[in-house]
Structures are given as C-alpha cells and as structure tokens.
Amino acid sequence: MKIDILTLFPGMFEGFLSHSIIKRAIETKKVEINIVNIREYSTLPHKSVDDYGFGGGAGMVLRVDVLYAAIEALRGKDTKVILMTPQGETFTQKKAENFKSLSHIILVCGHYEGFDERILHFVDAEISIGDFVLTGGEIPAMAVTDSIVRLLDGVILKESKENESFQSNLLDYPVYTKPKEFRGYKVPDVLLSGNHKEILKFRKQASLEKTILKRSDLLEGTEWIDGKESL
Ligand SMILES: C[S@@+](CC[C@H](N)C(=O)[O-])C[C@H]1O[C@@H](n2cnc3c(N)ncnc32)[C@H](O)[C@@H]1O
Fold first, then answer.
1. For residue 130, how many other CB atoms are within 10 A of its CB?
2. Cα–Cα distance between 33 and 6 in angstroms, integer?
3. Which helix (H) or strand (E) holds 2?
4. What is the Å distance from ligand 1's center to 194 Cα?
5. DSSP letter string, 9-34
6. Which atom of ligand 1 lies at the shortest distance from residue 129's CA?
7. Of the candidates 19, 111, 117, 205, which lies 20 to 30 Å from 86 by C-alpha distance?
C-alpha cells in the first residue's frame, strides 16, 4: 500500500515516521509513505499556496488550483483521495478496515482557515477524526495512517488485533502484568490459574461488562442486546 500525505508542514511527520511500528512497517516494505509538500506544486510567485477568503473573514484559505495540481500529480488509476476536515464523516475502526485494502491513498491536510470549498469536487472522501477543530490536518492524517498501517498484513501479530476494541462490537478485555498486587489491587486469580478455558471465559465476560459500562451504544442492535449470544 502507498500513502501520500499532502501537507504544508512536512517536518511535522519526522517523528511519526521514524518510530515504533510505523518505522518498522516502512522498513519492511509493508507500506510506502510519502510526505509531499503542497508548496512544491504552486506555480505562483513565492510559491504561494493560500490567500484571503472572498467575502472577508479571518484566516487564510488554501487555493484550489494549487491543491488540485498536487493531487493530480500524484493520482493514479486506483487512487482514493481523502480530505482531512472536521466537517467530514467521523473516522472509525470500520473505515480503517475498509481503507486498508486500498492500494493508494492520498491524504490532504488543510491548515489555517481551511481550503477553497471547490476542492470537494476532486476528492473521494472527507474524513474527520472527531468533533473538535485542530490547527491542521497533519495530526488527523497521522491518526488515520497509523490506524490503517497497523492493520496491514504482517505489521503486527494477527492475535494482537483479534480482540481489540471495535473489531467486534466490544471493547477489549482488561490486561494485567507484574506486580501481582499493587497498593491492594490484585490481578484477578483466574489469570494466574493457567486454566485457559476459564481465562477465555473471564475475558469474554469482562469485555462485555466493560462495554456495557463504558460504551453501551456499541451493543445496540447486536446479538448481545438481543440475548442470543451466550457466555
Ligand atoms: C483550523 S481547521 C479549519 C476548520 C474550518 N474552518 C471549520 O471550522 O470547519 C484547519 C484544517 O485542519 C484540519 N482539521 C482540523 N480539525 C480536524 C478534524 N477534527 N478532523 C480532520 N481534520 C481536521 C482540516 O484539514 C482543516 O482544513
């Protein structure tokens, strides 16, 4: 998979690309990630990329012609262009699962006041990472990239993903490590028992309880609510 990220601030991605799982995924060629400076595609004096918005208002607006030139220079036959915007559809694990099978994604990061609205005619999707406004699309693009890359085959162990929150309609089960007791709080006995059947049962139950407590909305319309699934 190839991910091109269009940004005005390529330096923001240095740490992101050079650590942990993302770094390893790049080194082992599970993914190719290119950080592309939008400014390179400006043919205007001083490589300008933005201007004041027509009709007034605070903040600079990214020009549609420059963004278009950058997108079209990178677009291939199977490319999906995704605009990072707080006005888009909220990103979810399900969307990450769908995106992971694409061969080429371009993520477009806005900045300042945003981009000229006409760019919407040239993108395939608008994605938000939540109902809050950030200064730019760089952090959203990192969040989206990270969540997709860790799902690619061979990036992390298959078993690590099996029970993860949102893979099904449940949150992940609680996990513990040493020490066995900390300030009076003990690791549940069953996890120390070596009885794998009981451990499995405990985890399934705990996962369901956590979901009911913290995110009962995830269970609406599922077999858990209808009582068809037995523990
Ligand atoms: C300051 S924001 C612009 C917000 C815009 N004026 C609005 O109110 O909808 C600048 C850029 O940051 C990015 N951005 C900010 N919040 C975001 C979010 N929650 N999800 C995705 N992108 C976001 C977008 O690329 C956006 O164009």
1. 11
2. 11
3. strand 2-7
4. 49
5. -GGGGHHHHTSHHHHHHHHTTS-EEE
6. 20
7. 19
What confidence tens digit (pLDDT) does each residue in 16-63 have? 999 999 999 999 999 999 999 999 999 999 999 999 999 999 999 999
d(CA 136, ligand 1 centre) in Å? 6
Tens digit of each residue's pLDDT (9 = 90 or more) over 74-85: 999 999 999 999
DSSP assignment letter at 171 = P
Whether the model clears a pTM of 0.85, i.e. scores above it, the answer is yes
- Name all residues whose Cβ lies below 6 A of ligand 1: 84-87, 109-111, 113-115, 128-130, 132-137, 140
165-226: CATH class: mainly alpha
| Amino acid letter, 126 | E
CATH architecture of 2-149: 3-Layer(aba) Sandwich (3.40)
Q: What is the CA radius of gyration of the chain?
A: 22
Q: Where are the domains positioned within the chain? A: 2-149, 165-226
CA 144 to CA 126: how far, in whole Å?
12
CA 132 to chain centre: 15
Q: Which residue has the tokens 């477009």?
A: 108
